[in-house]
Design a protein that fits this description.
By secondary structure, the protein is α+β, with helices and mostly antiparallel strands. The longest helix is centred in the middle third of the chain and has 16 residues.
Length: 517
């Protein structure tokens, strides 16, 4: 089974290489095999562009340059590893035998291993004696993040209800400089906002963010190649770093942040136990005060505090923050309608795109302030978000020449067009537009009146309008009948003017004659 890497993954490989990572370390960080990384690097060197230029390319350009970049997964082996996770949880249950579980595995697996291979893989994964080692963490290399298992509380001032809140913890492993913040939930918006404020707290960006397999961070968990949530991956791209989720059921991968959580219980939770807070901002203000004292505590062996180690060693290795903070993006799909607009379902409104994309399927990327429309990973429209429901948001550059003409319709537009045919035509246009309850209906009648000059000329049209004004019979159909029956040129008078029947001249002075004099 081949999983195609998207252009954002290619950019992460390039970013880590430019940061000095070896191919082996890039593979370990991103959960990709070293041989795959080697193949990518050979492909990058084969094109006539530098790595910096490739990093600056948009997603569509990268996909065009490297359309067949894939990595191969082993579903048979991964299926066995997932089955072992369930076996290991039952190890201490009375009556447990490997043979029972092997027989169960054979019945469910598509291509089962033999019993000998089954036991061999199990013993390799769960060795009887597991050694441990102290990992040396390079400064500015990683930031570990996690949510504490225990929650804090705030009180609803009006009802007295206790509202549980989550606690986000981040740590830079080299200096162990720690950040703690309370938030409403572990949902994607709160989680990414906490990550952004943690980076602002540190004043820089590490090369990688190591996260747990939270739903807010990881779409599909895997011990070997997890799928990162698209918004979180976009967040990492904005801050020029990569995401490296820990393996499932492997707490040793995030031992430092787990330890930071336990220390937060001692240094922050316990002092807060008898305090009452009525808002999240009040709680976070007290957390920051206690956190400052915690980061200033001296390590017994190092004779320095977390803050001192961060400022003297680690801060200089962090990448600079981007010029603007990250705005959370959401995504939806929409087809370009015949009018040249896409329907934006979150606000029930419409946004224009270039008319040549009519009928195409597009993807909409939106934040709280902007709406972007993409086709084949290329942005074709950018709008400021308008929260008004049912509103049509138009960029005039997107319209065809015909559509632009209709957009220009207004009373002033028609007066200007009528002025070249005479003052009586202008007067009739004003009357027709003012008499309609619905402007667009008046505009259509006004356009029809002006178009009569093509068949009868401007002079006759102005004369016919004058007759209609004198008779107090200003209407498109009546003026058209005056021209059709040559009443604008005749000295004869007509008894009546009707829209739906021909007008028969009557000789002599009749009672209706005064209407057209």
């Amino acid at each position: 089974m081949a999983n195609t890497l998207d252009p954002m993954d290619l950019k992460q490989i390039i970013s880590l290489h430019l940061d000095g990572f070896s191919n082996r370390k890039i593979g370990a960080t991103l959960g990709i095999s070293r041989n795959t990384v080697n193949n990518y690097m050979r492909l990058f060197r084969a094109v006539d562009r530098s790595l910096e230029e490739l990093l600056a390319c948009d997603n569509a350009a990268l996909e065009a340059l490297f359309p067949s970049s894939t990595t191969i997964a082993n579903p048979r082996y991964e299926e066995l590893m997932l089955y072992f996770d369930g076996i290991n949880k039952a190890r201490n249950h009375p009556g447990f035998t490997f043979l029972f579980h092997y027989q169960e595995y054979v019945q469910t697996a598509r291509e089962p291993y033999s019993y000998t291979q089954f036991m061999e893989h199990y013993n390799r994964k769960y060795a009887k004696v597991k050694g441990s080692m102290k990992l040396e963490h390079d400064p500015g290399n990683e930031m570990y993040i996690d949510f504490a298992g225990k929650k804090l509380q705030i009180v609803d001032r009006s009802t007295g209800e206790l509202i549980p809140v989550e606690v986000f913890v981040a740590i830079l492993p080299n200096s162990q400089y720690t950040y703690v913040e309370a938030c409403h939930s572990q949902k994607r918006a709160d989680f990414i906002a906490c990550c952004g404020r943690a980076l602002e707290f540190y004043g820089g960006v590490p090369k990688a963010i190591v996260s747990d397999n939270l739903k807010s961070a990881v779409t599909r968990a895997s011990r070997y190649e997890a799928d990162i949530n698209r918004s979180f991956k976009d967040f990492a791209r904005h801050y020029n770093c990569v995401i490296n989720p820990t393996r499932g059921y492997s707490p040793q991968d995030k031992a430092l942040v787990e330890n930071a959580v336990h220390l937060a219980y001692q240094r922050i939770y316990y002092p807060l136990r008898n305090m009452t807070f009525f808002s999240l901002s009040e709680l976070n203000r007290e957390i920051r005060r206690l956190l400052a004292a915690y980061n200033n505590l001296l390590f017994k062996r190092k004779q320095a505090s977390r803050l001192e180690l961060f400022q003297s060693i680690e801060k200089g290795h962090l990448k600079p923050l981007p010029t603007s903070p990250y705005q959370l993006k959401d995504y939806c799909r929409a087809k370009v309608q015949k009018m040249g607009y896409v329907y934006f379902s979150p606000d029930k409104s419409y946004y224009s795109v270039p008319y040549r994309y009519i009928g195409q399927q597009t993807q909409i990327h939106y934040t709280s302030t902007t709406v972007e429309v993409y086709y084949n990973q290329q942005r074709i429209a950018l709008h400021r978000r308008n929260p008004r429901k049912g509103n049509y948001n138009t960029d005039r550059d997107h319209l065809s020449s015909t559509h632009k003409y209709y957009v220009d319709w207004s009373p002033e537009f028609f007066k200007k067009k009528a002025a070249v045919h005479g003052e009586n035509v202008v007067a009739c246009i004003e009357t027709i537009i003012a008499s309609g309850d619905y402007p667009e209906i008046g505009y259509k009648r006004a356009m029809g009146l002006i178009q009569l000059h093509k068949a009868y000329g401007s002079q006759r049209l102005d004369s016919a309008c004058k007759r209609a004004i004198q008779a107090d019979a200003v209407a498109y159909q009546r003026i058209k009948n005056i021209l059709k029956n040559n009443l604008d040129q005749s000295s004869l008078f007509y008894q009546d003017i009707e829209e739906d029947k021909p007008h028969i001249p009557i000789h002599g002075n009749l009672r209706g004659a005064s209407a057209y004099q």
